Amino acid sequence: MAQWEADITLTQEDAGRLVERQFPKLAPARLEPLGAGWDNAAYVVNGRWVFRFPRRKMLAGLLENEMRYLPRLAPHLPLRIPEPVWHGRPEEAFPYPFAGYELLPGETACGVAWTPEERLSNAPRLGRFLAALHGLPVDEETRARAPGDELGRADLKKRAPIIRERLAQLEEKQVEVDGATVRAWLSRLEGTAPWMEPTCWVHGDLYARHLMVDEHRRVTGVLDWGDVHLGDPAIDLTIAFSFLPPEARGAFREAYGDIDEATWNRARFRAFHYGVLLLHYGMSVGDAAMTRTGRDALHYGAAE
What we know:
With about 300 residues, the protein is α+β, with helices and mostly antiparallel strands. The chain contains eleven helices and ten strands. It is globular.
């Protein structure tokens, strides 16, 4: 089974009954499908709320992390993030927790046909947002309780073979990728020193599908915080390589502040991880936006 396939089926009708049963104030619940990603199936409820339902058992804890930590982070960030309002409980009909959030306006960045100038104009916004997130104070109690990087997202030696394997799979399927360039970058970057400073709050899965933009192509919000944890800031800084062209990186770094060379290199490395993963996923499920997002990550990651 592909790692993004669900282990539970929840129909739109079942989701509506679940919402009405646990939140009678929302009845009658009018649901519109918003989409199904790797982690959750989402519906717009009554035109105002987004309800997200985990698609696999192992992901239920990620939604609980959102419900626990997003209310702490939201007041301190310059872009909007979802704040859980409705906290759904597991029950026999659906054994995982689920959550409802206020619907944020706009569309996701992966669905936009960007010009280089539009990407450049968003570099300072993204830099300031991540500076605020990564700069949030973390007290000792939070450091003891908050999730860490249990998946080894910033472990380059662990991730490099995975990237090479997925790259080979794409080449076997005759997908057009510059495998030689990607492999050269991996060889150059995989020995980069790890993060040795105290960990900070990170989004954990920041790429184009998790950015909200308005009608003027301005980034206004950041979605899908299931991977939020205390970790290496490079995990988020990869957006400078997966979404921004080279000419935008100076403005991003100026808005963010000091970034040492090793952290910058780890951020670039992560772009190749996103590239092969999203390209493989997008082509497997017929998602053109994700396919394009994966190609962007490979292209911009390799661009000097």
